[in-house]
Amino acid sequence: MREEYRHQSRVNEDGNVVLSETRLQAIRQTADYYIKLYGDDPSMISSRESFAMKNNTLPDPEARQKLSDFFFWTAWVASTNRPDAEATYTNNWPHEPLIQNVPTTENIMWSLISIICLIAGIGFLIWAYSFLRDHNETAPQAPAADPLSKLNLTPSQKALGKYVFLTLALFVVQVGLGGVLAHYTVEGQKFYGVDISQLFPYSLIRTWHIQSALFWIATGFLTAGLFLAPIINGGKDPKYQKFGVNFLFLALLIVVVGSYSGNFFALSHQIPAEFNFWFGHQGYEYLDLGRFWQLLLFVGFLLWLWLMLRCTSHSFKQGGDKNLLAIFIASIIGVGLFYGPGLFYGEHSSITVMEYWRWWVVHLWVEGFFEVFATCALAFIFYNLGLVGYHSATVASLMAGSLFLVGGIPGTAHHFYFSGTTTPALAAGAVFSALEVVPLVLLGSEAYEHWSYQHRTSWMQKLRWPLMCFVAVAFWNMLGAGVFGFLINPPISLFYLQGLNTTAVHAHAALFGVYGFLTLGFVLLVARYLKPDFQFNEKLMKTGFWSMNIGLVLMIAISLLPIGLYQVSASISEGLWYARSEGFLQQDFLQTLRWLRTVGDLILIFGAVLFAYEVTRLTFSRRT
Predict the structure, then answer these.
(1) How far apart are CA 91 and CA 87, in angstroms?
(2) How far is Cα 589 from Cα 25, in angstroms, rounded to an integer?
(3) By three-state DSSP, how is residue 194 classified?
């Protein structure tokens, strides 16, 4: 069997793959299982519930047959040696000892090197931080009154209230969908006894959950940029800036409603197959929305980029140091343009090409340019508030941006270990993704600095909750992006851990913990200046903030992480197939752990609702 899988099913010179009759029989038997599973065969009802699939997921028998063919080819790629090599096209992933799918020498070697690079990087960073920073530098004296409160809001800034509301509305929708999604893992087709899978199947709720996260986080970042731009422009709007802001909001609404509707109609098979890719569901996590809606969203980012540049570029004509402005504008351009690579593959591109460009968006756009934009935006905000000097803000932005991008750009390759790439990609991904973690070790210092701002002067108390969100960002950046990210990033780790609950641990702690709290901090800050005399209910804000953090901790600590570690043990000892199998995941104590996650989910959702309630109250307040 091993010989037949690894050596006897290669591509011939004529481009064909010749299989033995024995293997063809095995393929037909396996295909029959999937054809029954994705149909409505009564014998598979229990399995469909275990996998949280609705009955008759694919009504068309021809589509089920094509899906089983696709499964064969992915299995073929993962089990057949490359030409002139002793490893498969997927570098022997997934783990399957029966056919010698075990870690390659390069996998183990570069995993060890990545750990050495991490330790060395942390050491050198601490040395540089200790010796190169100016220990005698003192923070500027905080002004007696908030400098930004002396500025009159421009018409475009006043128009941002609806952006703040949309951000929080999508946030509540997203966490609510997450609760439904988590419940699907214990009642595969029901929500507390009510069968909702035929109308709202797991695949649809999962799509909306992830898409909502990207929408509300992106909307919050756009809001922060549009609020800052007139300040950089000397407190005034260019002509038609308000019109552009309102038009962009309308475009965002159309994309949100259109893409959600397209997802629903696609997964309920109410869109003809030939239109599904364009208007329904692309079938790729984080880029699920149809290509038409994806294009509209990219046009929206280009419009935002134009609105930002027409405000900020004029500042170069003024005298003085322009380094911080240059870094900020570079990050704006990155945010505006680097959603575009998600359009570089087509409906029928190979899976390797699709995977490549998709991670340009998910990793490089979000974890790279969003991170730099956030760093520069915060530097501008704290400089304009008189809390840091211009030189300090510039140096901090330059250093942080450089560290994020030096690790982040080549570090994107850690998503390509097993998608058809060769050893150089594996080496670059291992080393540079380890270096991505390095700057995160000093975030405790940044967190303390942000926390201490509220005590520098009495008027900063009004900005307490945005600052607390930025403190949470530093904590979750260290834990979620750093610790849990490195848990799965080395090639040897990802070889065994990819696709297990350990991935969800990193995803929740990093995406919500870092970008979620960063977005909440941004919109709270903007809302504060839209209605400066509004008084938050401190008790509700405090309860909401700590509920979200405690809920996220509980979700990870009592459910996701224990299940993930138990899966890791099964993956290493038996194989990845076993760690993801129906029989393994339906064990009683794993079911209990998934039920326990409800505690963390409800606490987090409760905190999100309180936060959203207070921000909604502010947004619609009659105070001006």
Answers:
(1) 5
(2) 37
(3) strand
Q: What is the pLDDT of residues 33-74, one digit of tens each?
A: 999 999 999 999 999 999 999 999 999 999 999 999 999 999
Within a domain: 112: no
Q: Report phi then psi at 152, rounded to 5.
A: -80, 130
DSSP H helical segments within 80-201, as ranges? 105-132, 155-158, 161-184
Give 138's pLDDT tier (boundaries 50, 70, 90): low
Q: Is 243 exposed, middle or buried (0-12, 13-18, 19+ CB in 10 A)?
A: middle
Tokens for 491? 């090639």
**H helices of 574-587, where?**
576-579, 582-585
Q: How far apart are CA 130 and CA 125, in angstroms?
A: 8
Residue 29 lies inside a defined structural domain of this protein: yes
User: What count of other Cβ atoms lies within 10 Å of the Cβ of residue 141?
Assistant: 9
For residue 252, give Cα distances in angstroms to 154, 188, 294, 497, 516: 22, 33, 11, 36, 19
pLDDT in tens, 421-472: 888 999 999 999 888 888 887 777 777 787 887 777 777 888 888 989 999 9
Q: Determine the structural domain holding residue 17 and report its residue range.
A: 1-80
What is the torsional sign of CA 287, 293, 299, 304?
negative
Half-sphere exposure of 142 (CA within 13 A, CB side): 16
Nearest to 295 by CA among 254, 246, 350, 250: 254
Maximum separation of any 2 CA atoms in the chain, in Å: 84
3-state secondary structure of 534: coil
Cβ partners under 8 Å of residue 338, min gap 6: 360, 361, 364, 365, 368, 369
User: Would you say the C-alpha torsion 273, 275, 279, 285 has a positive or negative sign?
Assistant: positive
For residue range 487-515, list pLDDT tens digits in order. Answer: 999 999 999 999 899 999 999 999 999 99
> Does some domain include residue 317?
no
**Rounded to an integer, what distance in angstroms lies between the CA atom of residue 171 and that of residue 169?**
5
What number of H helices and E strands is found in the chain? 27, 2
Q: Residue 31 class from Cβ within 10 Å (0-12 exposed, 13-18 middle, 19+ buried)?
A: middle
Q: Which two tokens stand for residue 343?
A: 């359009």
Q: Tell me how many domains the chain contains.
A: 1
What is the three-class DSSP state of 85?
coil
Residue 129 lies in a domain: no
What residues form DSSP beta bridges with 190?
A: 195
Instruction: Kindly report, residue by residue over 544-579, the tens digit of the pLDDT.
Output: 999 999 999 999 999 999 999 999 999 999 999 999
DSSP letter string, 427-440: HHHHHHHHHHHGGG
Residue entry with tokens 């870094």 = 327
Q: How far apart are CA 408 and CA 300, in angstroms?
A: 25
**In the predicted model, is pLDDT for residue 624 greater than 90?**
no
- Give the residue among 221, 222, 359 at the shortest CA–CA distance from 286: 359
User: Cα-flanking dihedrals φ and ψ of residue 615, to 5°?
Assistant: -70, -35
Q: Sign of torsion, CA 415 417 418 424?
A: positive
- Average pLDDT over every residue of 331-338: 92
* Residue 38 per-residue DSSP state: T
DSSP class of 481: I
